[in-house]
Amino acid sequence: MFLRERESLTHASTNFLNSEKENFKVAIRVRPPLEREIDPAYGFSSIAKVGNDQNTITLLDYLGSATNDMAREQDIYENPALCNYHTYTFDHVYDQNATQVEVYETTARPAVSSILEGYNATLLAYGQTGTGKTYTMEGFKYDSNDSQRGIIPRAVEDIFKFIESTDNSNCKFMVRASYLQIYNENISDLLKNDRVSLQIREEKRKGVFVEGLSEWAVRSPSEICSLMQKGELARATACTKMNDMSSRSHAVFILIVEQLTSVEESTEIKVGKLNIVDLAGSERVRVTGATGKRLEESKKINQSLSALGNVIAALIDTKNRSHVPYRDSKLTRLLEDSLGGNCKTTMMAMISPAFESFSESLSTIKFANRAKNIKNAPKINEDVDQRTLLRKYEIELQKLRIALEEKSQGVIDMQKLMELEEEMRNCEADKEAAIEALERRSREYLQEKEEKNKLEELIKKMDSQMLIGGKKIEDTPQFRTALEEKHREMREEYDNRMREIEKEREMIEQDKAQIDRYKQLLLRQRDIMIALTARLNERDETIIQLQEDLDTFDKIQKEYENSLQNKNSRIEQLDMILKAHGIEVPEDFMVPDIVQEKEPRKYQPYSTNEINIDQDYHFPLQMLTAEEKINELSQLIVEKTKEIEALHRNFSKFEEPKEQIDTIKIKGLIKNGILMKLDSLKAGIDINKEEYGEINDILKGVYDTCWSTLAYLGDIKEQDKPKENLAPNTKETAINRARALTVDEILSIKRQEMRKNLKQIQPNNY
Ligand SMILES: Nc1ncnc2c1ncn2[C@@H]1O[C@H](COP(=O)(O)OP(=O)(O)OP(=O)(O)O)[C@@H](O)[C@H]1O
Description:
Layout: H1 2-18, E1 24-30, E2 48-50, E3 56-62, H2 69-78, E4 83-89, E5 92-94, H3 100-116, E6 120-127, H4 133-137, H5 151-165, E7 171-183, E8 186-189, E9 199-203, E10 207-211, E11 216-218, H6 221-234, E12 237-238, E13 246-247, E14 250-263, E15 266-278, H7 285-288, H8 292-316, H9 330-334, E16 344-351, H10 358-371, H11 389-465, E17 467-468, E18 471-472, H12 477-580, E19 602-603, E20 624-625, H13 626-654, H14 658-672, H15 674-683, H16 689-712, H17 731-740, H18 743-761
Parallel strand pairs: 1-5, 1-16, 6-15, 6-16
Antiparallel strand pairs: 2-3, 3-4, 7-8, 7-11, 7-14, 9-10, 12-13, 14-15, 17-18, 19-20
């Protein structure tokens, strides 16, 4: 049976797919007349005539005056001109005799098939209130044998049959269901107890969706039926003039089928989504007589339906299709994919066959006729993102399998552990048995040994009684040798033992001494601690005592201050009284300022050495009064001044006053007669050879000094000094040089030389 179902489903799908036009299908269903529409006296005559091809419908617009269906029929028959005929063609038209199964098979089934191939599909029920939308979509019984089951239960059955008929073990399915309603422009989840208003979102990959809408994984048709029943109870319905249980909200039942097929290494995922939309019925408030809450509901319903009409109008307006007003209502926003998008949509328009509903039926037919022109562009959701629920479950399952394997591994390990523990216990038992056997054996051995000793004793005794070769055994040389050997061994053993004992004793003595030392140390530490504690206690007591004294003094001082303040204010008071009476107070009577005696401030003595601190009180050993301190510092200044003067004097040795140097040097030069000779030379007076040599030597020395001084001062480098002797060696050059040099120049050179010497002696102080 499953196979047959599968084949027929595939066939339905193929038919559906073959026609591009059928991406948006429109079917009309004329429901049977309701009891209230049938005139008990004259019967009922339908205004909707369905063509034999089941593609056309004609609505009869009677213009006559007959008041009942029978009379109207008669009148039309007799006067055909009294009737206008409105004929329209659709993908399918069901007359009032069409059964639920028929409607499902021809209209809904292809949509179901397409979702199994990974398409999005929508079945949309539209029509005036009470025309059979809910009946067609849901039906009223959820028994799988009930012939009045609607599209939803049948679709679900088909989906599960398809899944069951799939014998490919590499193919996995997941079916999820959601159920929502749009009531008064608020979206709420019919499968949840709360009535939180949900929002519509759009994502590139996911398309349009309701955020936070619950999705229920279902594994059988009965589970879906339970969800539907739950949703139905939550759906806003009311008893209206036109329908005992009129839906006051648009309801959308969503079925998502995920298919995951693993082929070798690759995985193919298909996700099909079926929206089954049961719209709230449009109604003419005038006819229904709605007021209050019902009126508000009606307005909202009509508004959203008119938004739906606007969207359709915009979609079919091929000339000006720039803007489609999807966002004008929640309904159109939600159906954005279904209307002109990635979806195979089937609109099912329901009409009443009753004469009284003619205008509504005609309006519905016209609406459906417009919708016929909508073109959708569905595509298989194959390249759906890898985050599909099934994929996630698959991954999760994989992880769980691994975890299970690990756990199983754990179990194996546990078994191994238990085995090892058992083995260990056996080993322990063996060991104990072995020890026991060993002990028994050693007891036996000791016993044997004892017995052997006894025997030996006995033999000895007996031997001592015996004679060997006519001699007593003690007298034999063998016995003596053996005896000596025995004695020697015993002595050796005794000595060894004694040595060991001595060693042990020494070690014990050492340990004892060490322990004694520790003990002494600890005792000493204890004494120190006791002493320190006592001192600390004493100090604490002293501090407390001092604090108390301080408090007492503070108190007394405060009292004195208060008393003084009182006295002062009294004096001021008296003074003012005296002044008021014009009496001058003599100077002698003036109260002297109270000079508070203060403890003289103390200063530390000046010392370059480290200050000795009294360990007990942390004070310097000696403190000076201010006067003493001033004296001390004055003394210090005197000493330092002397020191500085001495240093100055020393320094002055190297830095003689200019005039003094000049005088000395000039005197020296005069003494040597050189300057005179120079002057003579400058004056052009002839000098003798000796004099010339003398001058030449001096000039040569001056020349050298010049060089070295300039080198020292950094003006030139020593190595730059010419190698050849540039000192004047002729009378003429000597005279020229001498002429060039003045006395001041010579003195300046000499002074620089002195400075150089001084720097070498006291480089830091210079
Ligand atoms: N094809 C049908 N066969 C038998 N009874 C039908 C059929 N269609 C509708 N009915 C009956 O008509 C009445 C109204 O139907 P239904 O509630 O489905 O209308 P509706 O379009 O969903 O109304 P509303 O928009 O107010 O919710 C119900 O009692 C239902 O049983």
